[in-house]
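Changelog-adjacent note: as of this version, every example in the card shows the full chain rather than a window. The one below runs 264 residues end to end.
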Amino acid sequence: MSQPAPWAGGSFGETGTCVLAPNAGVMTLDGTNTWVLRDPGSSRSVVVDPGPSVRAHLDAVDEAAGDVAVVLLTHHHADHSEAAREYAERHGCGVRALDPAYRLGSEGLGEGDVVAVGDLEVHVVATPGHTADSLSFVVPRDRAVLTGDTVLGRGTTVVAHPDGQLGAYLASLQRLHALCGEQGITTVWPGHGPVIDDALGALDLYLAHREQRLEQVRAALATLPHLDDPARAVVEIVYADVDPVLWGAAELSVRAQLAYLAGS
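Full-length structure tokens:
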């Protein structure tokens, strides 16, 4: 089986540059994608998800970013947010996030906000599910959407119960699908892994995968005796073909699936 091509970031569209953080791992794929967004006619930029506190990475972001107007966070997980405050302090700017605990300055960030720097506009879309505070950012100029961990460039994301909620996640995928159709968004700029050039196709696959997993969980439950906590037993059936090193993360997703099924 061929290995996927290595991902190293780069420039995309008119406004996007991805600087790949050196934190590759089982859960982070090639590393965290720090996105620098800048109107070609402006010296000022928006930095999304500065990533880990690694000086060499932040220096590389500086090279791409120039004068940073604001830092935005897609969600609070440390591989995206750890360096946000120190990086913003480097540039004397704020950090805008949905969760107040991760902000620097008085401005928050939420559904319907538009962050404008020069002629660049970034439209904020609430996409909870992976985490309660997950946001996506639409860049109309490039017909692109930055999805954080809601849609990855490779594989599927973990909905980590209890912060992650499967019902909210499915609704967010459906909302992104509708937005892409209505607004002509073609490209996904994810928080991990390579850029996706078929946004609608990727979202179709994500929705189909979640439905398939739910059916597998239902079938697994039907074969098991009554258990007060069936999550691990379900993982061993449904994720039998997955490397056991990933079973801990799979169990979090199964717990989200069981909570969803219990409420449906």
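Structural remarks: The first helix runs from residue 55 to 65.
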